[in-house]
């Protein structure tokens, strides 16, 4: 995968701590990480050996061979303010996942500090 194709590209980067893939994370970033896994991420830049990605509120450097799949851009991103179309309640996106079988994103929403248990899709939400 070329840099030009990776910059600003959404990717699926399935890494979990201690799953024998820790070598894919830049050693300096690995020591400072406070997460136990990655999934969906946005490619920001690249140097000789690593690509810099953003996942949720963190930015880390990873090796590109850990990319499992290129994804389309999601309609909503972490911390986007949204409105539920069904009941007009407002909240934020606190997480998103790519469903491989359905080939689409699902979003997890927080309203008034409470995380909804149901995953939602594009047709359930409106950006505000």
β-strand number:
10
- Determine the mean pLDDT: 92
Cα-atom Rg, whole angstroms? 16 Å
- Output the strand order for the largest sheet: 4-3-2-1-5
The separation of the N and C termini measures: 35 Å
Q: Report on the biggest sheet.
A: 5 strands, antiparallel
Element string (H = helix, E = strand): HEHEEEEEEEEE
Helix/sheet category: mainly beta
Helix content: under 10%
Fraction of residues in β-strands = 35-45%
Enumerate how many helices there are, as a single number.
Answer: 2
The 3D shape can be described as elongated
> Which spans have pLDDT < 50 for at least 5 consecutive residues?
none
Describe the structure.
- The chain has 128 residues and is mainly beta.
- Helices cover 8% and strands 45% of the residues.
- The protein is built from 2 helices and 10 strands; from the N terminus they run αβαβββββββββ.
- Strands 4-3-2-1-5 form a 5-stranded antiparallel sheet, with no helix packed on it.
- The longest helix has 6 residues, at 27-32.
- The model has no long low-confidence stretch (mean pLDDT 92).
